[in-house]
Write a structure and sequence with these properties.
By secondary structure, the chain is mainly beta. Helices cover 5% and strands 47% of the residues. Strands 5-6-3-8-9 form a 5-stranded antiparallel β-sheet. Strands 1-2-7-4 form a 4-stranded antiparallel β-sheet, with no helix packed on it. A hairpin with a 2-residue loop joins strand 31 and strand 32. The radius of gyration is 26 Å and the shape is elongated.
């Protein structure tokens, strides 16, 4: 969680100001060289952020890192200007919040929004608020300087950046403005201590960037509300919309390209709506999961070029949408969305169908904060993504071509354990389909629900990691016109329930579960068959 700062030689802080005029003059020449040199094809996808809390010895720091995000590793950020930043809170009344800005009277280092070329010793310097283009504070080669409209002393006094402020990155070849493999360029780190944190606190960030696009300089503006994290442990939810603790049901109609949702209260749909946003033509649904950790599930799409996109939701509306990747080859397929790192935010798990390699993107909203390989699953099919060992990190359930079931227990981008499911009779016949995986017993560990595709029988495995603790029949046979659409905890009792659908007429029915037993059940309402239920 603590940022690794770049080692560099120490230089006096005042040396930065002494050379400011000459460096600013050099900017004009640098910009000319940028506009005449060959430029990469680029596309700015907006401002993104990562957020986390660090418990220090002196303070608890609530941190938001702001990024410019792009869709190609060769994209280049040239400058940022017309910047405004401010702290606000629409939820909790509080005194005016203030950015944490370190200063030292003894060493003649004033508070500043500008980055330092070195870091004095001490915890607090590591969590100073600053703006940048690409490089972390303490990097001698940062190259970030202010233009004449960036009145640092005034902004420090007001504890905000206003009035069309800007800063620039020079020289153009220092590399810090390149999007790179993570498709993002750091623009600033904005820190508040617990003294100023209240639930609902956010950073309002607005700015215009100049960047290389289609062989020429292009400009784009964006504004974001970037919320500060509380530091509390957040339970990941993949299927909630309105933060009432109960699972909801999301639908997609590929014909009309519309998304709809039901907000559930047990077997009652308490509210529902068709989202006003129409899905762009050529988009394919990949799944859903709470990418930004706001307890409202988000929807992931893939366009015809192979690029992934996300819709961020809040209740029954889409609040933001943006690309989250470059175009991926057709053989790279999404196999699930779930929180594999335990940070309360959904991650994207992919598989290369040619090689069998499984990879994952750890997400914070639209921003990919890390990626890596999990292992190889050649000859296997991913049946579910769920937390089988109760460690708040979701795992992968696999099925081999011969019916052998196995579990990958994940710890972020590390494959902690890979083993076949034990305490089972042997391979599972192909006539049995995995209907879903979720905690039906309430012990915090996901279980597996099975359906026989010709007999209609429903059974379950109660799981403990890769061990089948027990199992049993949930029903001897349900007519095949009824299909298990999803597992959802629609009554908020910590035990996931079964959502059924009549494939002939669209009637929806729910079973309220208590382990492998149906406690109650009943009709919910009708949803026409063209509306497919969205799953992680």
């Amino acid at each position: 969680m603590i940022r690794r700062m770049t080692d560099c030689a120490l230089i006096p802080y005042g040396a930065r100001d002494a050379n400011m005029f000459n460096r600013t003059i050099a900017l004009a020449a640098a910009l000319l060289s940028w506009t005449t040199a060959p430029l990469a094809v680029a596309d700015f996808t907006g401002f993104g952020s990562t957020s986390f809390v660090v418990q220090g010895d002196l303070h608890t720091y609530h941190i938001v890192e702001v990024y410019a995000t792009f869709d190609n590793p060769s994209d280049r950020l040239l400058n940022v200007f017309d910047v405004t930043t401010a702290l606000a809170n629409d939820v909790t009344a509080q005194p005016t919040a203030a950015f944490f800005q370190m200063e030292s009277v003894e060493d003649e280092i004033p508070a500043s929004f500008l980055p330092m070329a070195y870091l004095p010793p001490g915890e607090e310097w590591r969590f100073d608020t600053y703006v940048t283009i690409g490089a972390e504070q303490g990097n001698l080669f940062n190259g970030t300087v202010e233009d004449p409209s960036f009145v640092d002393a005034k902004f420090v006094t007001a504890n905000t950046i206003t009035g069309g402020a800007g800063w620039f990155n020079v020289p153009p070849n220092n590399g810090f403005g390149n999007a790179g493999s993570d498709l993002k360029v750091l623009l600033g780190v904005f820190v508040v201590t617990t003294e100023f944190y209240k639930p609902g606190l956010y950073l309002g960030f607005t700015g215009t960037i100049g960047y290389s696009r289609n062989g020429a300089v292009a400009f784009a503006s964006h504004a974001r509300k970037l919320f500060y994290p509380s530091g509390a442990v957040v339970d990941y939810v993949s299927d909630h919309l309105d933060q009432d603790g109960k699972s909801d049901i999301v639908f997609y109609n590929p014909t009309s390209r519309q998304v709809a949702a039901w907000l559930m209260e047990g077997l009652t749909r308490k509210a529902g709506a068709i989202f006003p946003d129409v899905v762009p033509a050529g988009y394919q649904l990949q799944g859903m999961g709470d990418l930004d950790g706001n307890a409202s599930t988000d929807i992931v799409w893939r366009d015809a070029s192979g690029r992934f996109h996300a819709w961020m939701t809040n209740g029954l509306s889409v609040v933001e949408s943006a690309a989250i990747s470059v175009a991926q080859p057709a053989h790279v397929q999404c196999i699930g969305i779930g929180d594999i790192s335990g940070d309360g935010r959904g991650d994207v798990v992919l598989r290369n169908t040619s090689t069998g390699e499984v990879t994952a993107w750890l997400m914070d909203g639209f921003v990919r904060i890390a990626e890596g390989s999990l292992g190889n699953a050649s000859g296997q099919t991913c049946e579910a993504i769920a937390d089988f060992d109760g460690d708040a990190k979701q795992d992968l359930l696999w099925r081999s071509t011969t019916g052998v079931m196995s579990v990958w227990l994940l710890n972020g981008l590390d494959l902690a354990t890979q083993s076949n499911v034990t305490n089972v009779a042997g391979a599972v016949a192909s006539s049995w389909l995995v209907a879903g995986a979720a905690d039906v017993s309430g012990d915090g560990k996901a279980d597996v629900v099975w359906r026989h595709q010709s007999l209609g029988m429903v059974t379950g495995w109660l799981m403990n990691g890769s061990i089948r603790d027990s199992g049993g029949i949930m029903h001897a046979g349900i007519p095949l016109m009824w299909r298990i659409e999803a597992l959802r905890d629609i009554d908020d009792d910590g035990k996931y329930d079964l959502i059924w659908r009549n494939t002939a007429n669209g009637d929806m029915n729910g079973w309220i579960m208590n382990g492998l037993s149906k406690a109650s059940g009943g009709f919910i309402r009708n949803a026409q068959p063209q509306w497919a239920v969205v799953v992680p």
